[in-house]
């Protein structure tokens, strides 16, 4: 289904982005994998050398996007999965922490897409997928203002970009998961295992968080021609959490 497509995946070195890379390779696609962790990128490359191109790059180096993209050739899709979270409650608000989250989650994707468009890297009928979240567009959570703002921004970007790129038949959509079992949540030391266990009970489907591969399959659908008339929308994959 995707065997003639080349997809650029950011966040390819961990969690959801890594699962997306595995899923796309399984579906026969070629990938351009972006991340900062060289060891993990190298492992990915050895897995399918002829179908994996790796780019070690800090996406918050905005001035370098143009130069980094010169080598990638043309692509048929982009998945923007790079992202971070950080607790930043109003009483202890840190502008520095806030800006860090905004840079990678919100500014980098728009810089990347605009450079891809300007460089003519996106083939006609390409598909762009942003990994958003229910947190921001759908629900709130104490202490997460920056993260929630960035994810709400991505859903807004998707609508605007979808309109700007429709004349090239390029589609732009978001996938919005609830909690997913990745390093993003296990590395949040301020959240106890007990509170994660309690949160899991609030997921109607299975009283559990999602696995990264369950997000990857949704992304694959949006990258494929099966979703050829879907653009500017948000596909929620949260086991029913946000409909309660
Ligand atoms: N896990 C969840 O519960 C959940 C829920 C909803 C939405 N999401 C969203 O899903 C996306 C992926 O999250 P995840 O759970 O897979 O997290 P993760 O396992 O922590 O992976 C984050 C990825 O982002 C990359 N990254 C971070 N900063 C970067 C930078 N400055 N430049 C380049 N790459 C950078 C990391 O690459 P390096 O380590 O190589 O730098 C890593 O591959 C995020 O946008 C997140 O907001 C996650």
Automatic annotation (TrEMBL):
InterPro entries: KR_dom (IPR057326), NAD(P)-bd_dom_sf (IPR036291), Sc_DH/Rdtase_CS (IPR020904), SDR_DHRS6-like (IPR051122), SDR_fam (IPR002347). Residues 5-178 form the Ketoreductase domain. It comes from the Bacteria. Keywords: Oxidoreductase. Belongs to the short-chain dehydrogenases/reductases (SDR) family. This is SDR family oxidoreductase.
């Amino acid at each position: 289904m995707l065997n003639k497509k080349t997809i650029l995946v950011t966040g390819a070195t961990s969690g959801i982005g890594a699962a997306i890379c595995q899923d796309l390779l399984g579906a026969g696609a070629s990938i351009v994998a972006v991340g900062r962790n060289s060891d993990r990128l190298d492992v990915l490359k050895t897995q399918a050398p002829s179908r994996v191109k790796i780019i070690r790059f800090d996406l918050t180096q905005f001035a370098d996007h143009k130069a980094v993209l010169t080598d990638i050739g043309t692509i048929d899709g982009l998945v923007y999965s790079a992202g971070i979270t950080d607790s930043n409650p109003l009483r202890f608000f840190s502008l520095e922490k806030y800006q860090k989250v905004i840079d990678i989650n919100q500014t980098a994707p728009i810089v990347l897409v605009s450079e891809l468009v300007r460089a003519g890297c996106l083939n006609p009928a390409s598909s762009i997928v942003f990994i958003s979240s229910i947190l921001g567009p759908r629900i709130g959570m104490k202490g997460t203002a920056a993260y929630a703002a960035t994810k709400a921004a991505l859903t807004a970007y998707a609508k605007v970009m979808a309109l700007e790129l429709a004349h090239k038949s390029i589609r732009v959509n978001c996938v919005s998961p609830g909690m997913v079992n990745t390093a993003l949540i296990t590395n949040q030391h301020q959240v106890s295992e007990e509170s994660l266990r309690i949160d899991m009970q609030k997921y109607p489907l299975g009283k559990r968080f999602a696995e990264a591969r369950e997000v990857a399959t949704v992304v694959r659908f949006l990258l494929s021609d099966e979703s050829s008339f879907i653009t500017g929308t948000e596909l929620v994959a949260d086991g029913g959490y946000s409909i309660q």
